[in-house]
Amino acid sequence: MLRSTLACQWLEERGSIPPVEFQQLTEALLPDGSELKHVVDELLFRKRSGEELDNEPPIPILQDYLAERLAYYTQLASELPAVAGPNSVQLDDWFLSALRESWSFSVN
């Protein structure tokens, strides 16, 4: 959930596709020296060293951060204007046209 939350923050602040590498997200978006950054760095270190983290006790600072960000992005999403979905008929026609052009054959 942390990666998704940081990706949302990246999109909101930078307006570009977030990096795939988790560490790039944390380095760019979590304040250096913060307790949250320290906790995340420690978890990342443990994960990289092969430690299984499935049965971890809750980490209050991480839970609080994620709860706050989830509430924020839920509210933000509710304020965005509705966007019409793609016109699937038009997309199908375009796709079939591209097939006909590329492979020079008829598709019904």
Describe, in plain words, how this protein is organized in 3D.
Helix content is 66%, strand content 0%. By secondary structure, the protein is mostly helical. Helix 1 crosses helix 2. The model has no long low-confidence stretch (mean pLDDT 89).
Descriptive key words:
108 residues; mainly alpha; elongated
Q: Care to count the β-strands?
A: 0
Q: Structural class of the helices, strands and pairings?
A: mainly alpha
Ends apart, CA distance between termini:
44 Å
Number of helices: 5
Mean pLDDT over all positions: 89
Low-confidence stretches: none
Q: What is the C-alpha radius of gyration, as a whole number of Å?
A: 21 Å
Helix-strand pattern: HHHHH
Sheet of most strands: none
What is the subunit arrangement here?
Answer: single chain
Shape: elongated
Compile the SSE list and pairings.
Elements: H1 2-14, H2 22-29, H3 35-48, H4 60-79, H5 88-103
Question: Summed up, what is this model?
Answer:
This protein has about 110 residues and is mainly alpha-helical.
